[in-house]
Specification:
Length: 121
């Protein structure tokens, strides 16, 4: 009688654990999708800024504007913005790698719990 209660508690705990792990995997996948979307958009912004810098430099080299301090400052500012995008891009890439690693660990833990449940039965 007592052992049946313990078995029931263990089974209920295992089922609850599987449900929670499933929800965590689903949540991690959603977060990863959002990060991927953000990562792609940051890359597009970086490309736009790179083209903008090239355009500014070509205007700065024109005879009419050559040596213009305002354009020179704008070019420098654009380069700083692109550097910030690049550093943010690296942070997102590192974060994305970390989430994938965490997701793989969670899947392995869930599989171990399923295997443990099979051994109990």
């Amino acid at each position: 009688m007592e052992s049946e209660k313990i078995e029931l508690i263990i089974i209920i705990s295992l089922i609850a654990s599987l449900i929670v792990n499933g929800l965590l995997i689903w949540y991690a996948a959603k977060v990863l999708q959002k990060l991927s979307y953000t990562y792609d958009n940051i890359g597009a912004l970086q490309d736009i800024n790179s083209h903008f810098i090239e355009h500014l430099e070509s205007v700065h080299e024109m005879e009419m504007y050559y040596g213009d301090d305002t354009l020179g400052g704008l070019i420098q500012h654009s380069r700083l913005v692109v550097e910030q995008y690049e550093s943010f891009n690296e942070i997102l890439a590192d974060l994305e790698d970390g989430i994938i690693s965490m997701q793989e660990d969670t899947v392995e833990e869930t599989q171990e719990e399923i295997d443990a449940e099979k051994e109990i039965r």
